[in-house]
Amino acid sequence: MPLVLAATPLGDSRDASPRLVTALAEADVIAAEDTRRLRSLAAALDVTPAGRVVSFYEDVETARLPKLLEALHAGETVLLVTDAGMPSVSDPGYRLVAACVAEDLPVTCLPGPSAVTTALALSGLPSDRFCFEGFAPRKPGEKARWFATLAGEQRTVVFFESPHRLAATLADAAEALGERRAAVCRELTKTYEEVRRGTLAELAAWATEGVRGEITVVLEGARPAEVSVENLVEEVSSRVAAGERLKAVAAEVAEGAGVSKKELYDAVLTARRNAVTEG
Question: Could you tell me which residue ranges the Tetrapyrrole methylase domain spans (predicted)?
Answer without folding.
Answer: 3-204
